[in-house]
Amino acid sequence: xxxxxxxxxxxxxxxxxxxxxxxxxxxxxxxxxxxxxxxxxxxxxxxxxxxxxxxxxxxxxxxxxxxxxxxxxxxxxxxxxxxxxxxxxxxxxxxxxxxxxxxxxxxxxxxxxxxxxxxxxxxxxxxxxxxxxxxxxxxxxxxxxxxxxxxxxxxxxxxxxxxxxxxxxxxxxxxxxxxxxxxxxxxxxxxxxxxxxxxxxxxxxxxxxxxxxxxxxxxxxxxxxxxxxxxxxxxxxxxxxxxxxxxxxxxxxxxxxxxxxxxxxxxxxxxxxxxxxxxxxxxxxxxxxxxxxxxxxxxxxxxxxxxxxxxxxxxxxxxxxxxxxxxxxxxxxxxxxxxxxxxxxxxxxxxxxxxxxxxxxxxxxxxxxxxxxxxxxxxxxxxxxxxxxxxxxxxxxxxxxxxxxxxxxxxxxxxxxxxxxxxxxxxxxxxxxxxxxxxxxxxxxxxxxxxxxxxxxxxxxxxxxxxxxxxxxxxxxxxxxxxxxxxxxxxxxxxxxxxxxxxxxxxxxxxxxxxxxxxxxxxxxxxxxxxxxxxxxxxxxxxxxxxxxxxxxxxxxxxxxxxxxxxxxxxxxxxxxxxxxxxxxxxxxxxxxxxxxxxx
Length: 600
Description:
By secondary structure, this protein is α/β, with parallel strands linked by helices. Helix content is 42%, strand content 22%.
């Protein structure tokens, strides 16, 4: 028997500022759907998600949620007013006695529920909003950029959590690896139209290019038809034209159809120009160390960066990646050791806080007011790689329209702020590029273009990012910062680092030894070792088992409340079901661990 859909939207039309965002849009989300919601920045993805959540009311059309279905939405900028701590906010939608659910997800997301709201950073607030959604466990989760401000370990935890849930979800993210691992359907928002493909994000680019190629072919055929009909209208004799007014009206209809076609948005005109060639040795760190109080950032770290290298820095939030970047560029001094900078360096910095942007100034003022971009005697020109250019024309290269030029920077979205900072960065030559979390909020197309630009850049790049796919595509070396002063450099990108970690190398050696023929035995050993995926699963299982044991303990404590069955039978039933589910999962995980350990 077919199950009712979780959510259905029918013939939705929505207009903002006179421009239609959607027109006659319909879509259905089924139980168990795992949907990637993709599209260019500004295409309406977040607006569509808010319509799905019931937070934005459409001008026309209907939204139906099936009976008994709860729809949860992760807010990008949650309102925490009235709450003393992040934990209070995260637990605000739970029944009394179910606060343990917040504690279960807080560790994986790496946020402290006791953090006061007044001192919480933007990233901590977003993690609290994500924890609130996961703790409430609605039947449909709407997640708008949940990986922003999460480090790679937390992203991998969230990925595993969503992979194991039976809840349906719709997901907006720029993280390709995250989307490819989790989604089984794709909604593509493009020029007010939403297309659905019954396949995950992997393969989206090929699908998009196919659709665009078909559009271009149809447009070409229409143009040829209009040209032929227009020639007939000009050359046909008057009597014939009088008898064929229908054909004249058809020509007008063709022209109207062609003019109504919405032009695809172009890509930002990202372009880097290398400054004077730096010396072959760009940076050399010798035995550097740094600490703040009892916290050790680095101890005895060595690194040699040569011209043309692309070095990625990875590790948990707060481990000191940005501090290391500042030491390597001479902005702050190490406590021990020395950093030697190469000759003829021209450094450009993309900082994760966007501190180079004045939030209260306009886009125009942010560019023309930059001493490195200002053109003497011209208030409407900026210097772009040595050539004066009108500020509006330059902003259009980065997909800003004329209405935004005089708007304050604070009115921009996260992706638009990132594009504006790239516009400032790319206007001047450099030969050492520092990118501190540049991928946050950028759409997939801009990420592709940024990757291509970095590939053609003649200078050297130091990169901090939590986007595993982007690191794989860009980095030639990866420095893993593991905490307590430990940092190790590995050749290659993220996947190369994962394969070269000591525990993985040891497991491979152990598996190879187990797979080798034993001379004393008449028969080869039964075990041929574990695959890479199985080894990773074996490494992950102890943490999964520990988490399940902790959840079981909390549930048993919750169910031990005297008279809970009589005073609140609904909570008792939910708690009992949750306990049974986790006990089954624990038994399964333990059996899987035993089987893999025996084979290893």
